[in-house]
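Escalation from tier 1.

The customer reports that the assembly of two entities below gives different structure tokens on two consecutive runs. Tier 1 could not reproduce it. I'm attaching the input and our single run for tier 2 to review.
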Amino acid sequence: MHRVVVTGMGAVSACGLGADALWRAARDGVSGRKPVHYPEIDTQRVGHAAALAAPDLAQVIDAAGSRMRDPVAAYALVAAREAVAQAKLGPDDFGDACGVSIGSGFGGAQTLNTNYLKFAAEGSMRLDPMSVPKIMNNAAASWVSIEFGATGPAYCMATACSSASQSIGLAVQMLRAGAAQRMLAGGSEACLESGVFRVWELLRVMTADLNRPFSRDRNGMMLGEGAGVLVLETLEAAQARGAEIICEIKGYGTNSDAGDLLRPDPERAAACMGLALHDAGLSPADIAHVNAHGTGTVANDLTEAEALRRCFGDAPPPFTSTKPVHGHALGAAGALELIVSIGALRGRMAPPTLNYTEDDPKVHLVPVHGQAQPIGAGAVMSNSLAFGGINASLIVADV
Amino acid sequence: MSETREQLTRELMKLVAKEGMVEAGTISPEARLEDLSIQSADFIMILMAIEEKYGAYISVDNDLTETETVQDLLDLAIAKIEEQRAA
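Tier 1 run:
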């Protein structure tokens, strides 16, 4: 089995362009929350999301947009370019030796939404003729493989909020097994469109106020968007080309609740964390910090806190939800949060959970809040707990 | 004011019964939602109807997890509706 390392990272998010901008925002507790307004929604109840800043969006579309691409592909391309540049990959490093594993929850949401509005509201038959290739969920993965000539295996996990974590986990498993030497892995989501926003409103899991994970006065999540892509390589491949190694992906665990579609299961979430620890060959005491799924919904927070207790005991390592910073970016969430987790690992610093006000007696655990907290040497875990009951945990460590 | 509140309560009872797919005759303020088999998917429908009719947004969160009886749900809905009307 090959060891798997990270040699490059790229991010597009409400916190700005670049993995570093994302990490700094998380560490310093600067939220990318912005007002969002959709004229098509009669009476919009929720008025904020972690949307890309207008100049950043313009820059991304200018750099990677085209008539053939929904923004979801442009986000992924910009993140992948950054990751590839950081890894200093050259033309000879792609080909069949390099695969792609980039997930998405919604795929080309803007194209779909625009078409629905034209078709249903306006009765127009003149829809975007490129709709099919723009909407399909794997478009982002395919564009990334085309851009770099990565002709190895290309995958697109569409497992809601676990899409990116599972995409990265799958890439890790493939590299370990020798199916490729390197993989561009992560997730992309460009879901802040009127139709998508409205159906999230209807599910009533979004807060009309501030996103406050693990806090007693929480009342829902904040949607986000963006993309995170990492260059993953076998340790041998990275060493052979003299690459600068950022960290190791030490463990991956994933399982299914096989229970309720929407309500998470603490036992299964704890089992998932346990799988990742076992895979990494680590014990709970080796984990210095957990980046929690921490959506700020009562269903998640109570479940995840219970799962943390089951996995780590009554005094789990310092844990944080950084979703108030970058929002819940659904299919990109796991990649953005892994990038933040790697920032925490390298900086030995757990970022704060923004907007936290008071201990919830039902949670019984207090996340890192107020300001970033120094953490000891050790590995860092990142959790994703998705609708559909799909759990995924990744563990990163120094090489 | 109290008359409006009584009327609102009656309207909401009907709404909860309809959206929760419960016989109107079996619903009472003291009835436990669990005993009426009103589950999370029914809650979403009830809350959507409240939003449509009264313009009040109630997220499926803390407040709602503490509702055990029909009266608890009515109290929550009335508080949110009054909040909305005052805004």
